[in-house]
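Q: For a teaching session next week I want to show students how multiple molecules come together into a single three-dimensional assembly. I've collected the sequence lines for a complex. Could you give me the predicted C-alpha cells for the whole thing so I can convert them for display?
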Amino acid sequence: MGMLSRMTMIVKSKVSTVLDKAEDPRETLDYSYEKQMESLRKVKRSVLEMVTNKRRLELQAGKVEAKVEKLTSQAKEALNAGREDLARIALERKRSAITELQALEEQLAGLETEQEKLTHAEQRLQSKVEAFRTKKEIIKAQYNAAQAQVRIGSALSGVSEEMGDVSIAIERAQSKTESLQAKAGAIDELIVSGVLDDPLNMGKDEIEIELEKLSSSSSVEDEMKALKDEIGNDSTKQLEEGK
Amino acid sequence: MIVRILAEDQYDLPGKYIDELNSIDNELVELVEDGNATDFNPKLEEMLNMVRKNGALVPIDELVESDLVLPNSDISFEEATSLFKGEGLIPN
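A: Of course. Below is the structure for the complete assembly, covering every listed component.
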C-alpha cells in the first residue's frame, strides 16, 4: 500500500461514524454540529496552550540573556582587578549560557511554526463549521427524507474530514510540546532538589562573592593608604614642627 | 479528484495527474523502505508542489470529501516510517 492510501485511511479513520447513529438524519446534523463546535474549542485551546508555552520559554530565554550580560561584565571586572582566573570562570559560564540560549531560541522558533499551523487549522475549521451550519439549516428547512440522506452525507463527510485533519494537527503539536515540557519539568526538579545548580540563579554566585571581596579589600586598601598618608603627613608635620 | 494536503488546503486536481501522483507515491515508499531520509522530504515536497500547481483550490466554505489525503509538508522521516508500520501518524 502506498503512502497516500495509508494517509487517506488514517484521516478517514479519525472521522467519527456519526452518520449511522441517529434514526432521523436531522438529529445527525445537530449531533455532528455539536461535535464540530467541540473540535473547534479544542483547537482554540491548543492554540492558547501553545501561546502559554511560548511565553514560558521566552521568559526563560530572557533570564539566560540577562545572565550572559552579567557574566560578561563580571569577566571585565575580574580582569580589571587582575584576577584572570575568575575572568576565565565567568567566560566559561558565559559560553554554556549562550549554548542554552541558542537551544531555547530554536525551541521557540519550533513552537512559533506550530502555532501558525494550528491557527491556520483553526481558521479553516471555523469556516467549514459555519458552512456546515448554513447547509444544515437549509437541509432541515426543505427536509425530504430521500434527498436529505445524500446531501447530509456529503456535507458531513466534508466537515468530518476537516475535523480529522485538525485533530492530527493538535496531536502533533501536543506531542511536540509534551517532550519540551517534560524536559523543562525535569530541570526544575533537579534545581529544587539541589542536584543541579540553578543555571538561571540570579542570586549571588561565587564569582560575584569573590569580586565583592576584591572590591571590599581594595577599598580597605584605599582607606588604609589614605590613613597612612594622613598619618604620614601628620608625622612629617610633627617632625617639621619638632625641628 | 479532490486532494487534501494535511494542515493546508483541499485541491481539485484533474484526473490526468493520478499517474504522476502514483509514481511519486511509489518512489516515496521505496525511500522509506531504504531508510533514505535525505531524499524523502524533497520528494514529498515535489509531490505537494505538483498538486499545489495543477490543482484548483477548493473554496473554504465548500464541504467536500477528499479522494486522497497527502501528508503535511513537514512530516518527519520517522513519522513517515511509522505510517508504514501501521502505527499511525503519531508515534507513541
